[in-house]
Amino acid sequence: MLDLSLIEVKTEKETQDFGKFIIEPLDQGYGHTIGNSLRRVLLTSLSGAAITQLKISGVRHQFTSLSGMTEDIVEFILNLKKVRLIVSSDKPVKLTLDVKGLKEVKAKDIEKAAGVEIINADLILAHLADSKSKLTAHLIAENGTGYSLAEERRSGEIGVIPIDANFSPVVSVNYKVEATRVGRLTNYDKLTLEVTTDGTIKPSQAVKQAAKILVDHFSIIHQPPVAGKRQKVAEKTPISDDLLKTSLEELDLPVRLTNSLKSGKVETIGDFLAKDRKDLLKMKNMGPKSINLVEEKLKEKGISVK
For the region Alpha N-terminal domain (alpha-NTD), what residue ranges are annotated (predicted)? Predict the structure, then answer.
């Protein structure tokens, strides 16, 4: 087997939405093993945000039209599905689109909400035909993974239209495996990975997240956790009393997250480590994403929470 310390990950090219990476040398066969595994996780398991519901004033269902709008409601919904955005909250957020007059309606016309950023702001959503035209829509955006069907979010409220949502921030992944040389030996693999995202995440970050998801799953197989217990392990050195007493504010967490922890009487690193994950999830405004963020910050200080 190849000495794993010889493996290098090189970034050949990267923009906000495209990246080309080379991983070499790999033992023969591992190019396809790693390439296919990363591709599957990149396309299916990364979290992102999407608009999942809307309610349009004067419209009862999607199979109709709105006076003064060139597009019918189905076309309008298809355009809303293309809106790419970043939602920092773990909870669904409400957005409003309120425009009138002769106008080309774009994604940037959606009123800004705290913790929400629209990436493709120039995306055209609809066209209003004259000065009397008006479009008022209330939207729901939220985080998720994979593809979610509208049927999963049916509600009894009249006028609320659920939307099929593609949460994945990764648009496409291609990989190629070629032979490469180590010394005189040529039977090693060179993996070239090309990742295209929607701009809400850089390709290198997407690859790292996918790799971490795989590592987390393999680690459970390698070292199965004790049933019903949340193991807390300190990497490198034991956790000192001073570190346990360190305020969570020093981890440079979002203010909203710090306040949520404080309201649950979790103010120090020691308080956080003493809490069971189930208890943390019961706290107001605390979701898996928030807990993972705290754990990432702890990892920077040499503390790994498993």
Answer: 1-234
Mean pLDDT value across the chain: 88
Contact between 19 and 202 under an 8 Å Cβ cutoff? The reply is yes
Amino acid at position 12, single letter:
E
CATH code for the domain of 130: 2.170.120.12
Report which DSSP code applies to 250: G
User: Is the peptide bond preceding residue 238 cis, with omega within 30 degrees of 0?
Assistant: no
Q: b or e along 143-181 (b: 16 or more beta carbons within 10 Å of the residue's beta carbon)? A: bbeeebeeeebeeeeeebbbbbbbbbbbeebebebeebe
Q: Is residue 39 part of a domain?
A: no
Q: Which of 151, 166, 181 is the last residue of a domain?
A: 166
Q: Which pLDDT tens digit goes with each residue over 203-260?
A: 999 999 999 999 999 988 888 876 555 444 444 446 677 778 888 888 878 877 888 8
Angle at 146 between CA 292 and CA 9, to 5 degrees: 65
Report d(CA 126, CA 142) in Å as an integer: 22
Q: Specify if 203 maps to a domain.
A: no
Q: What is the pLDDT of residues 166-194, one digit of tens each?
A: 999 999 999 999 999 888 888 899 999 99
Give pLDDT, residue 186.
Answer: 83
Average pLDDT over residues 66-95: 93
DSSP code, position 237: S
Residue 131: which residues within 8 A CB-CB, separation 6 or more? 101, 102
The pTM score is: 0.69
What range does the domain containing 73 cover? Answer: 47-166
Name the domain count of the chain: 2
Listed residues 116, 134, 166: the one ending a domain: 166
